[in-house]
Amino acid sequence: MPLNMRSATFLFLLAVFVAGMNAQTKAPSADVTLAMSADTPEYCAGPMTPNWPSAGFFKTQNPDDIVLRLPVTLQYKNHRSETIILPPRIGLFNRMIVPGRNEPIVLREAKYFGGSYVNEVTTPPHPDAPFDSIGFSAVPGGNFLCLLAKGPGCTSDTVLIPVVDHSSQLDLRGKTIQIVMTRDHTLQPALLQKLTELWKASGTVWSGVAESAPLTFRIQDELFVKSCWPSKSNIQQTADPGIKAMIYVGSGGGSIPLAIAMQEEKTLNPHNYPFGDVMPDGTVKVGDAANFGPFKMNWFMIQQTRTAKSMIGKRNSLNPNVEEEIGRRINDDAALATRILKEAMSVWDTSPPDHPMKNNFWAGHRYGQSGLENNSNVTQADWKDFLKYYNNIKQLQSWIDQDPQDAWTGNSRYWLHLQNR
Question: Which residues of 62-78 are buried (b: 16+ CB within 10 A; e: fewer)?
Fold first, then answer.
């Protein structure tokens, strides 16, 4: 098995899912705590998609039920002076405190377990690498801020909260609630001892339970309710779990790359579409318009990334033989394709393409050089297409983040209709 596949296999061994974790029994640590802030809420109507309760969520059944979907920014606060190395998350426990109720309401309760092979874990996390909840992460001591869920110890999550549940006669409209999150990052003693010695130059390997202070949130009396859950028509059992694993290795668990791959190709496998891809009329794409990898990135953007420039070297990127060679390498290695995608997203602006602009990643991804330059070939209808693509990706990302275990390890592909370009 190739090294990158072994790494991916190991990562997912750490995240085999089992629902129904026993109620929180381990004492939270004072050394590592969670800071939590709420982002824009959404109120969702009707029964949840059936597979989400199997991921440890509560279940709503009535078409008139309402669920609050609350995105939150989480930050692991290291109260020590030295850098700590945080192990993968093995369990989570979300609970809600409602005034007038004696007991908190359990929102989500789940455990992740699996084999952690000491010999496979040899490299400590890079200090500047993005936080990875199901991998190892370095968290420096001190007080840092999260910007768009990025920064030391920063990540994002989504809390699902029953607002109206007819089966239990619960109605929280107009009520103020509090949410508490608990995350279990305990390592088995043998592995903790091994890694403590192995990684002592990089930081202190930490093992324990982190908990947040209560986040207070008021639910409005009058709610704008919409449909949020993917229907059966938005889920296909066609995705290649091996490609998902490779994307995970390249992205560090980021769900945007997986969302793009899901939108682009039903299997996620670039060998499932003609080399270079085709236009809607069946014409083969060549030159700068050619697409490669699970994300169908165009050659115009690929060749401008740091990794691709290194692969091209002193050769002419316009040489069809060079394009073909590197295109085939990208098609064969989803982790490489993901690294190139992430570099592209750091080169160009990834803000919503909601008005004509230059150097927008989404416009370039949909329309190549013309989209990036917003030249005379780009119409208002094109910008509507760019925005629809962006909104599709954000919706798929939301579905992935709400059931990451199924999204990353199963063969489910979430998708939304979009005209091919």
Answer: eeebbbbbbbbbbbbbb
Is the full-model pTM beyond 0.85? Answer: no
Residue appearing with tokens 């001190």: 142
Which class for 256: exposed (0-12), middle (13-18), buried (19 or more C-beta within 10 A)?
middle
The number of beta carbons lying within 10 Å of the beta carbon of residue 18 is 13
Residues in CB range of 340: below 8 A, 6 or more apart: 293, 297, 302, 305, 307, 308, 330
247-294 pLDDT, tens digit per residue, is 987 776 678 999 999 999 999 999 999 999 999 999 999 999 999 999
Mean pLDDT over 308-330 rounds to 92
Cα–Cα dist 407/239, whole Å = 9
d(CA 91, CA 17) in angstroms, rounded, equals 9
SS3 label, residue 242: helix
pLDDT digits 0-9 by tens, 29-79:
899 999 999 998 989 887 665 444 444 566 667 788 899 989 899 999 999
**Mean of the per-residue pLDDT values for the chain?**
84
Q: Which two tokens stand for residue 93?
A: 């426990």
Give the Cα separation of 296 and 290 in Å (integer).
Answer: 8
**E strand segments, 206-316:** 209-211, 215-218, 225-226, 235-236, 291-292, 297-298
